[in-house]
Amino acid sequence: VCRTCNGTGHNCGVLEGSVAGEGIDGADFVFYVSALQSERCHNGLTVAYAAHCQQEAALD
Q: Out of the domains of life, which is the source (predicted)?
């Protein structure tokens, strides 16, 4: 299933018409990256900033 968010990183949901598949064969871990300009990026000393967006309750 493809999940997307709007330009501000809000209103996230399943992309209309997307369907669940078998996943990625042979993968133990999949790392997805998205980018969003925020107030944390306006400091000239900031090179990068990261935060998690989802945790799996069964694995925490």
A: Eukaryota
